[in-house]
Amino acid sequence: MNTPSQAPLGFLLHDAARLLRKRFEQQARHLGLTRSQWQVLAYLSSNEGIHQGGLAELLDIEPITLVRLLDKLEAIGLIERRPHPTDRRVRLLHLTDKARPLLGSARKLGDATRAEALQGVSAADRETLVRVLGLIKCNLVEACERPAAFHDSQRDSAENG
Amino acid sequence: MNTPSQAPLGFLLHDAARLLRKRFEQQARHLGLTRSQWQVLAYLSSNEGIHQGGLAELLDIEPITLVRLLDKLEAIGLIERRPHPTDRRVRLLHLTDKARPLLGSARKLGDATRAEALQGVSAADRETLVRVLGLIKCNLVEACERPAAFHDSQRDSAENG
DNA sequence: CGCATATAGTAAGCAAGCTTATTATATGCT
DNA sequence: AGCATATAATAAGCTTGCTTACTATATGCG
After folding, report:
1. Average per-residue pLDDT in chain A?
2. Where does the HTH marR-type domain lie (chains A, B) (predicted)?
């Protein structure tokens, strides 16, 4: 087992993301926004009028996860769900006027938090980081859609008769 | 706002970590372990007998978060809390015999999940990724200990009043 | 037209991570 | 000895992310 400073990639990635969220949320307390709420608003601002399933897909999260986030954003008056003109299953999502000034503040906060995180990291390393994380994300989105390739002794027994 | 494939670093890091955990947990269902439980066991296996506060510090998580994880690990028989010989506040943590075979399986699963995630990523890029994530983590651990530098209009008013 | 299948959204429940707060115990100073 | 301060562990409550399951509605085929 490596020492903590040489933790395996999985632990390191998780820790970095967790701490980045913790720091962002410390800084964002006064806005009343969490990290995930901010990400939803950010994606919605570029996709006004999208339906819930579509936004969940863009965010690569399960629809039920988005429902919870939207419930809260709706409760604090930052988004509204509107009915679809012809399909009664669908709700279309819009930012409210209250949300728009928050977007600028949250973006600045995100920039400041990113700057804190990236101190001492060269521009070349940042570029590599973003490129590789993008590749990792794509790989995992695909992997999550494949069945798990684990050994299930119960299933193995059944298959072997 | 960038397109999702060009998401800012914060969103990308969060998504990559979330999907890595999702994939690991898909693969690890049969072990009955979650990603965070596995990380606790991994760190504990290199620090047998450490107390809770010490382990939380190594993991860079809040003590209450570790308590929850330990409660579950204890309930499924993978760790035990022992009293300290002389300090009645402290509990010392040990892996049980039941845990040890699981560590090997979980490590293999972690390796396989990491390989899925890193397909198409060169060795040089992996090295850069680990080094930069380590730096980011260190930066954020320090940043989280500093007070948030946000504009609190209430506080500002009080200070200017 | 009727029905099987698919899609959109949501309920329940669990895990993990945090903030805030509390209790029990130890330490160190006067 | 007494008490203020610090430390270890934990309770309550919230958010987020998932799995499993459900309801309402739409679609397409025979």
Report:
1. 89
2. 6-138
3-state secondary structure of A79: strand
Q: Is B5 exposed, middle or buried (0-12, 13-18, 19+ CB in 10 A)?
A: exposed
pLDDT in tens, B96-119: 999 999 999 999 999 999 999 999
Q: CA(A18)–C1'(D4) in Å?
A: 36
A32 reaches B (C-beta below 8 A): no
Instruction: Report the C-alpha gap between A147 and A93 in whole angstroms.
Output: 32
pLDDT above 50 (res A159): no
At B93 the three-state DSSP class reads strand
As assigned by CATH, the class of the B15-145 domain is mainly alpha
Give Dmax over CA atoms of chain B in angstroms.
64
Residue B154 has pLDDT above 80, yes or no: no
Chain pair A-B, CB pairs under 8 angstroms: 200
Side chain identity at B77, as an amino acid letter? G
The hierarchical CATH code for the domain A29-145 is 1.10.10.10
Name the residue closest to the C1' of D12 by its CA: B64
Residue in chain A lying closest to B40 (CA): A11
- Asked if A17 and B140 count as a contact pair (C-beta separation under 8 A), the reply is no
Distances (CA, A) of A100 to A55, A97, B88, B150: 18, 6, 54, 19
- Assess contact for B70 and B82: CB atoms under 8 A: no
**Domain-by-domain residue ranges, chain B?**
15-145
Mean of the pLDDT values across residues B57-72?
97
- The C-alpha of A27 sits at a distance from chain B's nearest C-alpha, in angstroms, of 5
